[in-house]
Amino acid sequence: MNLNFVLNDYVLIWNILFNPSISPAIQTLKKKLWKNYRHEYNSLYNEEDNMLKDPKNYIPSNDTVFDMVKNSEGYKELREETEKYRLNLLHTFDNIKKELSKNMKEILKFDIKLYHVLVVDPLLDIKGMKIPKNRRVNTITWGNTVDSKDYKLAVINIISAIVRKEMATYREDYKDIVEAIIELAIDNELASRLLDKSVYLRGDASLKYLKKQLYPYFLMYLGYSKEEILNRMLKDHIVFELDKYTFERGLASVDLYSFIDFCIKNQRHILKINELEII
Q1: What does the pLDDT look like over 196-255, one tens digit per residue?
Q2: Average pLDDT value for residue range 65-87
């Protein structure tokens, strides 16, 4: 897997214009633009999809508002900070790229091609992805206050957003199961490996019961032996009676899509509601 971190002025400016203001200077600029160029400002709202389809070659039909923002002092300062953020993400990704690729192959068991990460200022707090109507477009927009100082965690969260984008339409009738498995795979397993500590307690609180039921089978999917599973559940602080589970050896040879299919097909057996405990 490869990530290309890009600072695109049009994407950054669009997010400045149509998200809450992140500084007094930006707020003043937006008010001025709205007062003097209301029609041009308003017409840009629907341009986001066009930008994300091909950001590198995007050309607006009217440059007026974009040019006004580009030439402002507030934007120049914000752009410099965004560029520093982009470089930190890039350097962190380069440092963990080999380890990341190895673990992604072991956890997902399918390839994800090059993705373009359109970096915006983290104060804009874009916490996930902006998905164009054409979901096959391999771009996401990123700038998140939560992980803005922990760049390794930021890369993990970017990967999480990309995997969710790739699987956004898969088995849509079973969104909770799909989401719980993605969380186990990326937010928990991949993050635990890259951060060198178990983070299996991290995640969406509404999925904690479901994840507990899926967890033993997920470890089988990862190829762990019974002895290794016992060690893992102690490490991750998720306790269950392994002897009550049928050891599904075949799961180790399938990819994440097929594992999702297995869990959906066998959900009546896997999801034992009367045995649920809080993770």
Answers
A1: 999 998 999 999 999 999 999 999 999 999 999 999 999 999 988 888 898 999 999 999
A2: 95
Q: What distance, in Å, lies between the first and last C-alpha atoms of the chain?
A: 31
Residue 170's CB is within 10 A of a number of other CB atoms, namely 14
Query: Which of 215, 251, 257 lies closest to 234, judged by CA?
Result: 215
Residues 113, 118: Cα–Cα separation, whole Å: 16
Could you give phi then psi for residue 3, rounded to 5 degrees? Answer: -120, 135
Residue type present at position 139: T
Instruction: Look at phi and psi of residue 237 and say left if phi exceeds 0, alpha if psi is from -120 to 50, else beta.
Output: left
Secondary structure tally for the chain: helices H, strands E: 13, 3
Token pair 């760049």 is found at 151
- CA distance linking residue 119 with residue 134, whole number of Å: 20
CA torsion 57-58-64-70 (nearest 10°) is: -70
Beta strands, E only, the chain: 3-6, 115-119, 139-142
Each residue of 28-57: pLDDT tens digit?
A: 999 999 999 999 999 999 998 888 888 999
- In which residue are the tokens 């088995």 written? 171
For the question of whether the overall pTM of this predicted structure is more than 0.70, the answer is yes
Q: Are 180 and 210 a contacting pair, CB within 8 Å? A: yes
Find out whether 17 and 44 touch, Cβ atoms under 8 Å.
yes
